[in-house]
Amino acid sequence: MSLTVVANRVPIRQSDDGDWVPSVGGLTTALLPVLRQRGGAWIGMGEDPALPERQPFPADDPDFTVRRVPLSQDELDGYYYGMANRVLWPVSHYMIQHFEPNPSFMETYRSVNQRFADAVLDEVDRSDEQIWLQDYHLMLAPKWIREARPDATLGHFWHIPWPAMEVFRILPWARELLRGMLACDLVGVHVQEYVDNFLESARVLLGADIDGQTVHYNGHATRVEAHPIGIEVDRFKQMADSDEVRTKAKQLRERLGTKHIVIGIDRLDYTKGVLSRLEAFERFLENNPAYHGTVSFYQIATPSRTKVDTYQQLKREVDEVVGRINGQFARDNWVPVNYRYRTYTQFELCAFYRAADAALITPLRDGMNVVTQEFITANQNGVLILSELTGAAYLLPEAIQVNPYDKDGLAASIRTALEMSPEERTTRLTALKSTVEGLDVQRWARGFLDALHA
Ligand code: ADQ
User: Fold this and answer.
1) Whose CA is closest to atom 9 on ligand 1?
2) Which of 140, 314, 407, 424 has a 20 to 30 Å separation from 413 between CA atoms?
3) Which ligand 1 atom minimizes the distance to the CA of 161?
4) Model pLDDT for residues 213-272, shown as the tens digit of each residue
5) Is residue 300 classed as helix, strand or coil in its secondary structure?
6) Average pLDDT for residues 198-223, to the nearest whole number?
7) Residues 176/139, Cβ–Cβ less than 8 Å
8) Closest to 8 in 3D by CA, of 372, 392, 305
9) Does residue 374's CB lie within 6 angstroms of at least one atom of ligand 1?
C-alpha cells in the first residue's frame, strides 16, 4: 500500500553541488524510509523556486515523487504568515495576545488548502493508498479530499497542543476547521490531554457523538489517538558518543571555564519561554551571589519566522535582557549569559547537550518538545528542568518540573539542579533515557500508520 504525505514543507533540499538530498529533521527521517519502501508521494509547499513542481526521488533510482505546490507571495502571506503563524499557532498555544483574526488570512488558507487537496487528488489514483497530512497548516484539505474520494484512507497528525475547547472556540472559524479535520479516519496528537480537548471541541461545538475516542459526525467516524513523537535515538546516541562531539564538548567546557554549564536550546519563538527563562536566571544570580563566577548559561536560539513582527520584537527583547544581565553581573573572566542567535548542526548541538550540567527547557506551552529528548539521549549525567506546560512533561515525571511563569520557582530549580547528588542525577537520567528510547521516531511513524490501517 503506497503512502502520500502532505506537509507544509517538502523533505528535500538542494546541496552545494546542486543535487537534491533529504533535509534534516525528525519527520523526514521517520517518513522517507516508509516512502522508499512503499512508494507514493510527498506533497509540500516547497519554498525553493529551483525545486521542480514534480520530481521522482532519488533521481538515480526513484522510489517516490516529490511534488511542490507553488505559492505566490500573497498566498504565502495569508496562508502561512497569516493563518498558520498569527492565528492557529498563538491560539493553540494559549497565547491569545498574539492572535490576529484577519478574515483575509482564512480566505487564503481555504484556497491554499484546496490547492493541496487538488495536488493530492492528482497524485493518488487508488483508494487503497494511505494519505497522511501533517499539522495545523492543513486543517481543511481533508474535507475536500474526502468529498472527491469517499473511500480514501486519511490520517492527520497535529504536532502542537490541541487547546481546551473554550480556547479553541475563540477562533471565529472553529467549526469549519473542525469539520475539515473530521473528514479524517484518524487524528493523532502527542498526549491524552489533547485527545480529550479535541473530543470536547467536537462534542460541544458541532454536537458530534463521542464514543470512547471516536467522533461520529455527519455519517463519518474519526478516531482520535495519542501517538507521542520521538527522536532518532540511535543516531543521537552515536553522534553524542563520537570523538568529534566529545572533543567539542570538552573544548566548550574549557572555553567557558566555569564549574557549571546550564543550556537552553530553542527556535526563537514566544512559546518557548526564552525571555522568562533568562529572567529566572537573572533572579537566580540575584538570590545566589555565591554562584557568581561559577555558572555559565548558554542560550542558543535558532532564527524562526523572522518576517512576523512579534518574532522581531521578541528578538529585540531577548537581546536587551541578555545585555542587562551581563551588564550587571559579568566580571573579569566570567560572562554569565552566552547567547547565540543562529542555527547549528546536530553534531554541534550534541556537543552542547553533552557539555551541560543542566538543561532549562521551559516553554510557556509546547505540543511535545523534542529538544528535551535530544538532551536526555546525548547527555550523560545532567539534570533536566522541564516546563510542566509541555507534552513532554506528561511522559517525563523524573525531570524537575516547573511552572515557566513562576520566576522564583524556576530560579530555585536551577539551584536544586546544580546541588543534586550524583546518585539522584543518575537515577533520574536513567529513567528518562529509558522512556525516550521507547519513543523512537520510526516507531512513532509505524505506530500511526498501523493505527490508520486498522
Ligand atoms: P518545534 O516547535 O520546532 O516543533 P521542538 O520539538 O522543540 O519544536 O523541535 C525543535 C527542533 O529544532 C529540534 O530538533 C532542535 O534540535 C532543533 N533546533 C532548535 N534550536 C536549534 C538551533 N539553534 N540550531 C539547530 N537546530 C535547532 C513542533 C512542535 C513541538 C513538537 C515538534 C514535533 O511545536 O512541540 O515536539 O513539532 O512534533
Assistant:
1) 370
2) 314
3) 35
4) 999 999 999 999 999 999 999 999 999 999 999 999 999 999 999 999 999 999 999 999
5) strand
6) 98
7) no
8) 305
9) yes
CB-ligand 1 contact for 371 (6 Å cutoff): yes
Q: Is the CB of 264 under 6 A from ligand 1?
A: no
Q: To test ligand 1's pocket by mutation, which of 158, 364, 369 has the most ligand atoms within 8 angstroms of CB? A: 369
Phi-psi region for residue 266, left (φ > 0), alpha (ψ -120 to 50) or beta? beta
Is 256 touching ligand 1 by the criterion CB < 6 Å?
Answer: no
Buried b (16+ CB within 10 A) or exposed e, 90-103: bbbbebeebeeeee
Q: Indicate if ligand 1 lies below 6 Å from the C-beta of 359.
A: no
Per-residue model confidence as pLDDT tens digits over 304-363:
999 899 999 999 999 999 999 999 999 999 999 999 999 999 999 999 999 999 999 999
pLDDT band, very low/low/confident/very high, at 127 (cuts 50, 70, 90):
low
Burial of 247 (0-12, 13-18, 19+ CB in 10 A): exposed
